[in-house]
Every structure is written in structure tokens, then in C-alpha cells.
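Recall the central idea of this unit: under ordinary conditions, the amino acid sequence of a chain determines the structure it adopts. In this exercise we apply that idea directly, starting from the sequence alone.
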Amino acid sequence: MPRIAPLVAAAVLALPACSAVAGGGPPDPSAAPPPSADASAPAAPGEGGSGDGTGETAAPEGPLAGTTVVIDPGHNGGNEDAPDRIGELVEAGHGRKACDTVGAETDAGYPEHAFNWDLSRRLRDHLEEQGAEVVLTRESDEGVGPCITERAQIGNEARADAAISVHADGGPSSGRGFHVIAPGVLEGYTDDIAERSYQLALHLREGFEEGTGQPRADYIAEDGLDKRTDLGGLNLSDVPKVFLEAGNMSNSEDAARMADAEWREKAAEAVAAGISGYLQEQQDGAAGQADAG
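Accordingly, the structure predicted from this sequence is:
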């Protein structure tokens, strides 16, 4: 089964078109805490670390402790100004495809890349509150890329228990609603993750629908679910992965929701609930097999 060779850290940083770090733009201030004024000073008892005075970091707690989730905010804010870089063709598992694209936009000018970035950070916070380790595929909304190949590779190298690519669609203005895309079976690529990805898609559809009240798409997919073999981000994944199209930016009702920060917070909670349901089901299944063994 074809696999992309792991990227060494120096190579990732050197990629001019595909690295979120090399893509430019200041990092998200919430991505990592700032260093203390004196990093060499020991923490006082009860301050920092595990709180026991040893300086050790406490293990994550919560229902998702021990799991890793990769969140891929689709597109990037600098893509529009770098057409040659994002237009570079890369292998996508079904042929060659553009490194990345610009994304959709509402009639009022709210860009998809900004929606994806905001929802992804909110989702990260909710998953981390439940104990999951979360990896974002880009560090800001002002860079270029990364390419679809690297987005998939980030999830693979993290050995993610689940991965989600966050998007909003740009369909016909008369259509509205959300849909979830799972990988179809592509021999040698997705045949080992297709079933688990589909289960993740089912949980995500249920959680998103219940948590947001957003209807299932009436212009694409079937009952809010689609399977595709033309998306490099899915084809090149070695871990269970889905795409969420949270709504149709060309539709006025969907656009108004996605532009509303309160709705985005509700949407993040709903996505987290879907992912959490899937991960806990997988954990329960693994525990059951261990008991049976």
C-alpha cells in the first residue's frame, strides 16, 4: 500500500509552498503559551506542572485522554495572493491535483478560510477540554497552504485516532445545509481506513445535526453523507478522516449562520460531540476485545 515517506523536520520547514510554518504569517497566539519571564526559575509548590511540587506535567484527564485528533482548517488566508504556489500540481492518490485552493466566500465577503480557522480553533479547545491531544495543520490564517499532501501527512505522522478537515461549501445559492464527506474505497490508499472513516462520518453527522439544527444538504450528497475518491486529503490519509462542509456560503441562510460567532461556537461543540462519540466507541470496542482476549 503506497505511503508517503515521513517528513524530517528540516524538510517541512523548508517547503516553500506547502508548509504552514514556512507559509508566513504570525502564529496563532493561542497555539502555545508564552514562555515565563525566567524559564530557569523553578515553579513554586502548587504552581505549574502537576501541582505537586515535582515540576512534572500532569497527564491529561477526561474521556478523550490518550487520543489524538488532527484538525485541518481548509485553505489559508494567503492563498489568493499566491496562485502559482497553490496551483502547483501534487500527487493526490487519483492523479495530480492543485496543492491547495482559495476556497469559497459569502456574498458579504466572509471568506471560507477565516470560517474554517475560527471553527477549528474553537473545536480544538473543546476537544482539549475532554483530554484529547490536538494537532492543527496550520498555525495562522495568514499563510499559504499547506498542500493537500502535507495536510494528510500531518495526520499520518501524528498517528491520529481521528482527523477532520473543516470546510464550508460554495454551491448553488438555492441550496443549503451541511454534509460530511468520507473516503470511498480506493485500492491501495483508503481501503484500510474507509470503514472507520465512515463510522466517524456517521457520528459527526449526528452530532452536528443535533447540536446546530443545521439541515442536511438538499443540493448535494445523500442524507448529509457523501463518499469521494477524488480528494487528496482523504486519499493520502492513513488514519480515519472526514471532511465537514458546514454549510453553503452561497446561500443567504447558511451564510448568516456561519458569520455568527455564537453559531460557530455551537457548531464547534457539536463537532466535538460527534468526534467524541466516535472515539469513545472505538475505545469501548478496543476494551471489549482486550477483555475477550
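The longest helix spans residues 261-292.
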